Amino acid sequence: MMDIAAAIAAERRELADLLDGLPADAWDAPSLCAGWRVREVAAHMSLGFRYSLPRVALELVRARGGLHRMTDRCARADAAAMAPAELAAALRDNARHPWQPPGQGIEGALGHDVVHGLDITVALGLDRRVPEDRLLVLLQRVTPRSLRFFGAALDGVALRADDLDWSYGTGAPLHGTAQDLLLLTFGRRLPPGRVRGEHEDRFVLTRAA
């Protein structure tokens, strides 16, 4: 079995190196997270390391109990306050941090890092390939419940990975790389041309890049 903690640490270090190499204008480019630029995604990725539990509780109160409001507000504030080098360092310096998304376990922590990393690299058109073993851990966790949790509307679609022996669902085939299909299971929309199938238009970004 894969050492998931080691995979998380490697993912964070690799993403930190990638962030360190981004040109200045890339930090203000839109990500796949609606309303967030690259810098907001990077800030959000390290929130669980940088905020104590009392701080999280305080921010939740300020957001009137809304978790999404809290994470959005904190990501925007931290992205404005922290330099790109600080955001990258927050990932690298906490590569072995044991934080996990509430109720999602260590696999959820891996998913958090992998998917938000793809939110950045896919949006920027960077050719980063997530290692196969990390993708398989996450793809094997796709269930109707997880799709509902992430707001992924995949009714009538059968996901078929071109580069891994993985498929999910029933209906009209939708082909793409495993990491692109993983993004769909997390409720993301993709740049044009990344998936192929009868219903591909349902999963394409409509906002300007």
UniProtKB/TrEMBL annotation:
What region holds the Mycothiol-dependent maleylpyruvate isomerase metal-binding domain?
9-96
**UniProt entry tagged with the keyword Isomerase:** yes
Higher taxonomy: Bacteria, Bacillati, Actinomycetota, Actinomycetes, Kitasatosporales
The question of whether tRNA processing is a record keyword is answered with no
Keywords from the UniProt entry:
Isomerase
Sorted alphabetically, which Pfam families does this protein's record hold? MDMPI_N
One GO molecular function term? isomerase activity
Task: Report what the protein is called.
Answer: Maleylpyruvate isomerase family mycothiol-dependent enzyme
Source organism, top-level taxon: Bacteria
